Amino acid sequence: MKLRTCRFISVSLLMLYLLPLSTFAQEEEVMQEVQEALAAQEKIPLLAGVAVSADLCGLFMKITNSRFANMEAACRLDFKEKYFPIFELGIGDCTREGGDNNNSFSTTAPYFRVGMDYNFNKKMSGNRFFAGLRYAFTSFDFDFKNPDFVDPYWNVQHPLNISKRSNTQWMEIVVGIETKIWSIIRFGWKLRYRGRIHQSGTEMGEPWYVPGFGRNGGTAWGGTVDLAFDVGKTAKSNKQK
Amino acid sequence: MRRLSQISVFLCLLTIAACDSADCSLRNNVACTYCFYSDGESISLLDTLNVYACGTDSVLVNQEIGASSVNIPMSYWLDADTLIFEVCGEIYRLVDTVYVEKTNIPHFESPDCPTKMFHLITSVRCTHHFIEDIAITFPQINYDEVENLQIHIR
Fold it and tell me: Which of A57, B71, B78, B84 has a Cα-to-Cα distance from A121 of 20 to 30 A?
């Protein structure tokens, strides 16, 4: 019995001495990882890459004949794997018909966005966690038609054909993730919260849809599913890796 | 990677299925509000009032008794409406014609909502059998139910 107690005490003491040592070793590992990350960060050139991307979600919406679709492509720079200035160019398309009242709304127009994403992931693993901001602008013509517009009291039927031009500006808050799939190909998604800051051409009513913004309103949610390709020097270095 | 793809597909579907409800305005009555005055004060008509739209068989106000105001719709496409105001007592019948000149402004909200016509009154005049004068107080005719015209009765 005494022998057992002695063995237990000696093992406990040994563990008590080794525990701080193992914690110290873990701390050292973490420090080493941080130092490596910092060293890797320092190795990254100022202009670390250029990429072009396309939104698959908009294409899917167009193919499936959705009521509207924002088809867009983007070009972005990569500064130090942290800052990603981006320019997005797209074309918005919408044909919407009312059910019972024969109203129809249609527009097809380009839109532009400029902004920047920030990558929160410190590890150089190919995964990126983005948060960013965009300024967006579109100028578009839209048609609102009703061939059977009836005056119920004077009993006159007269087709209604309204063609208007509207300018709309909005801001977007963007969060998203992206991962490297293979070689120069990256895949990711972005969730976008949009806030309208200006709209003109609404004397007769607001357009139902704004290219690039989506369903018109003070705010709107949207998203993109991006397939991106690294181009230029980055593409070559990625291929080598 | 697999999880990322699953999340991406889910978000893609979520974006496509994003809210698609029709937010039509609950106020959908567009009419010109005529209020009756006598000696500068608001009054209720003791007689029976009928209002007809000239050139149609529409009765816009039918056998209204004790009216202090009436809401009368306007034509969608005409530049001027001609309205017949008829006041009937027990032994008399007085008729005045009111001409309201206006511009018509189509108004739409959504393809799902009914399209309306707003108006801007530019001038108004009338005959003077029981109406002394008519004045514009608020020329915009839209969903707001405010006093648009004042009819001063003799």
Answer: A57
